[in-house]
Amino acid sequence: xxxxxxxxxxxxxxxxxxxxxxxxxxxxxxxxxxxxxxxxxxxxxxxxxxxxxxxxxxxxxxxxxxxxxxxxxxxxxxxxxxxxxxxxxxxxxxxxxxxxxxxxxxxxxxxxxxxxxxxxxxxxxxxxxxxxxxxxxxxxxxxxxxxxxxxxxxxxxxxxxxxxxxxxxxxxxxxxxxxxxxxxxxxxxxxxxxxxxxxxxxxxxxxxxxxxxxxxxxxxxxxxxxxxxxxxxxxxxxxxxxxxxxxxxxxxxxxxxxxxxxxxxxxxxxxxxxxxxxxxxxxxxxxxxxxxxxxxxxxxxxxxxxxxxxxxxxxxxxxxxxxxxxxxxxxxxxxxxxxxxxxxxxxxxxxxxxxxxxxxxxxxxxxxxxxxxxxxxxxxxxxxxxxxxxxxxxxxxxxxxxxxxxxxxxxxxxxxxxxxxxxxxxxxxxxxxxxxxxxxxxxxxxxxxxxxxxxxxxxxxxxxxxxxxxxxxxxxxxxxxxxxxxxxxxxxxxxxxxxxxxxxxxxxxxxxxxxxxxxxxxxxxxxxxxxxxxxxxxxxxxxxxxxxxxxxxxxxxxxxxxxxxxxxxxxxxxxxxxxxxxxxxxxxxxxxxxxxxxxxxxxxxxxxxxxxxxxxxxxxxxxxxxxxxx
Amino acid sequence: xxxxxxxxxxxxxxxxxxxxxxxxxxxxxxxxxxxxxxxxxxxxxxxxxxxxxxxxxxxxxxxxxxxxxxxxxxxxxxxxxxxxxxxxxxxxxxxxxxxxxxxxxxxxxxxxxxxxxxxxxxxxxxxxxxxxxxxxxxxxxxxxxxxxxxxxxxxxxxxxxxxxxxxxxxxxxxxxxxxxxxxxxxxxxxxxxxxxxxxxxxxxxxxxxxxxxxxxxxxxxxxxxxxxxxxxxxxxxxxxxxxxxxxxxxxxxxxxxxxxxxxxxxxxxxxxxxxxxxxxxxxxxxxxxxxxxxxxxxxxxxxxxxxxxxxxxxxxxxxxxxxxxxxxxxxxxxxxxxxxxxxxxxxxxxxxxxxxxxxxxxxxxxxxxxxxxxxxxxxxxxxxxxxxxxxxxxxxxxxxxxxxxxxxxxxxxxxxxxxxxxxxxxxxxxxxxxxxxxxxxxxxxxxxxxxxxxxxxxxxxxxxxxxxxxxxxxxxxxxxxxxxxxxxxxxxxxxxxxxxxxxxxxxxxxxxxxxxxxxxxxxxxxxxxxxxxxxxxxxxxxxxxxxxxxxxxxxxxxxxxxxxxxxxxxxxxxxxxxxxxxxxxxxxxxxxxxxxxxxxxxxxxxxxxxxxxxxxxxxxxxxxxxxxxx
Lengths: 630, 630
Fold this sequence. Notes:
2 copies of one chain form a homodimer.
Chain A: H1 3-11, H2 20-23, H3 27-53, H4 58-88, H5 95-103, H6 105-137, H7 145-161, H8 164-195, H9 218-228, H10 237-240, H11 249-278, H12 293-302, H13 306-321, H14 323-339, H15 357-373, H16 387-406, H17 412-470, E1 489-493, H18 499-511, E2 515-521, H19 531-544, E3 551-556, H20 563-576, E4 582-590, H21 594-597, H22 603-614, E5 619-627
Parallel strand pairs in A: 1-2, 1-4, 2-3, 4-5
Helix pairs in contact in A: 3-4, 3-8, 3-9, 3-11, 3-13, 3-14, 4-9, 4-11, 4-17, 5-6, 5-16, 6-7, 6-13, 6-14, 6-15, 6-16, 6-17, 7-15, 8-11, 8-12, 8-13, 9-17, 11-12, 12-13, 14-15, 16-17
């Protein structure tokens, strides 16, 4: 099985550019791809808020209702806002595009950096949360935490490299199982609550709430709100990835967005209602006896039977796979940045399966570094999270406000108000999130976003400079100096007398009549001195056919260095002949198998690289390959 | 500070080949270099034997005396044997050389492989033992075990890369402190024992021995002997490294060897006597309350004061630094193998400080892999140990027997008998060691030695084949076909119109009148189509000065691939013109700073590599560099 077959097996066959249309997907398969991040929030958003409310006891649980309402309203505003963005930017209206086009390049870069940071964190945190859940079920796997995380990351990477359509199919079952199971729990729970007049008796005994140790202050409520707002991350995914939808693209994208948000809102609301009805609060995370809110809730409604196991299984799956949404969007942001030359051109191009492979690999690499550094336990990264998303939300909505100001239309006024409301709401939320988490780690996010923006600007400046230097627009090939220039001086480094050297010399005497062979002689260099044999081997036979023979120059090396004397020689010849080009013909043995390559000296490659880096404009390097074992 | 200055600081200034004589050392500084491995055995040899004897209770301790006597006698035989080897092989008589010259290449390779395996294990085990000792003193360092091991390994590597003389100076103090402290303990202990009529009272209370649970069987004694024989590892070091001694080389080497063995024998004997006098036995390793035999012994003789602390400190140092002997010898074995072309030529050459740098780095890399795989705790590797040393001893002695058979001399008969005794004794010991540890891991050593021998033979076969293929001994440069061959067809891949491409085209039209520019056009390839502008940019100006202009060929790419269409084009031209050489001139942007290099596409490098690998004999690759920001 050769390399090509392995690639075929891993990634599937290469798709032609014109097959793009067939790789697009509908709402049903887009939902698992683009909704996983948002929907998985149902598993941790309410829990995060309740954990903050823990010291307030029963009052805290009563506060969950209004808090959830606020979050759902915010989500509704964001959803309607993004619905408009999708309509206005049918080619993909991620925060970068919207902010750039309406607020200028700089704020566009801030939005892009914030979003990219969040995507990387989402992958690392999502994967380690999923693996953490598996490990709390099977504790004997604990020593393999990191390996499991990396395997999961590799699988996600591979599935996404295979293309959008295949990824959608893989994530279909767990996503819809999650929605179905949680939805059924909510409906059954609410029905029971109504039937029992608001006081249902739990199927599994519910934990006693700890006594309140604090009153429900405004600060506590704001902190709970900030934590609960992590439920909004991932909502922007659809607007960024509009082009992956089949026609009618805009309508499908809008419907998918509304579908995701509606399902998420229902799950969050159901969760709040049931927590109150069954008196379910958070348990101290990281302590003995910890149990997640959803686990308590499903247990209380449905008991601990098969349904409980299936539901918890689907929650684990969705948590671990929520990273997938990042794999959809991160490469698209990279692509847009690369098109605008804020990233290397590799990120702009689609790979064999029409996805932006370079971006997928970059995301996987960043997430892998985080997972390895934190050994698969990324709890400490959570405070860095969500800030990026809210920054991006805010810039995106603010950009849309500007957009409506510039583009008059029939619904302009209504749209402007809607987006302005969104911008203010998400802006305030961003401020709340940054303030309440600043010392816990949000400052790192702020620094990282700033650093990324600087990096992108430096990269951009570099590309502009390179273009300015090499651009010659429509200057024709200047030719006046061409006939005047003399033939190049050809230098051939030789180590010993063999067929490889012979071939290089034969090639050289065709290039120029001024060929110089140069041999380095010294301890440890292994050179059979060629001086004695040069006349018989080279000079006489060449003179016989009327060709000027190359001369042999010997360079001594008294400190066992090979390259320094050679380079010195080449540079001396170059400097002594300011009007001539220098062509260095490097004899090189080539071996096709990598393990044989390990056995050859890489003197030729090193020499070529050094000449390329140090040679200067007049030095051209020629590889004269000799193929071993043909 | 540039790369050159950093190298200067890390490794010291480059030494000229003729400075070799000044890098040689005398016996006093050679002892820490070559004796560390052997001397450190005093810290674990008796302990290893006593641990095996543990079930036999007090009878086990009484058996230590005769066992130590046997080991010391064996050591004496080996020492006398190697003394002769040094005299017979003044250029370094490692087991590889002696076995190869007298028993044939194959057995030489077996000896070399066995020794190399042992050297790698010695580094990993020595370093982790040293770090383990430090950690048992400062338990809070435990989470950093691996990092500490790797730092220690890096320091050893660096010191050895700086040259033999500097390494000797670094290890001087700990080695002589170790000898001094342990020697003083032995003398004081023996004096106390004699003064008290054989029953000295310990300064610190000695642990109660556990009750015997087994009788002292022959099997138990043999196993204890096999474990105790680890004390002999490292004795061969001097014979291998004879050339590092100042003149009179042979005499200095012999004196150093005898000195090392004599000190080690005294330490071992003292240890056995004092264990018996103070009733000191081993404690169960890895269990709570474990204390090393030497720690008990020093405590019993001198109490737990400052002397105790200094002595234990010197033991820790010597254990961790015992790896250094491997750094002296492993690279020399590699050097010899490379000279005989069983390893790549890099291993044969001396680096900037006249040491075999490639071998030092290879040893460090192997040891680092072992340390990382076992996370710095290499206890499980100990059963693999010592087998290599005894295999090498046996082959070396057997080789010397053959040597004396071939080289008659005045002391021939005596020498032959001595080496034959050594061969038989070490051969039997090797058998005992392999048998008693076979299932614990010795089988792995046997397999690894076999694998290494096979690898060396394959490498050798490869080099022989390459030489056979490229060797043309004194065939002159054949020239009959030279004038007949037509000028090459030059192919220039162009992406867009810029100065880089211009320069490549100008170089090309000087090479041949048949130049073909080729452009790949397709989605994601970013090509500004050149067809329209070719006439104005290239054809007209060149025709004006009387040069045949290059034609432009457009190659479509409908699946976004860049290299495949280019290679297909080159190979098609090559196959359509079987009588012509093909020269591919690759325009290339060169950037000197590595971080800028990251931003350039590496299309030129990839294309050059692919052409080199796939092009075949008639394709020559030319780099036409364009230097950015000059």
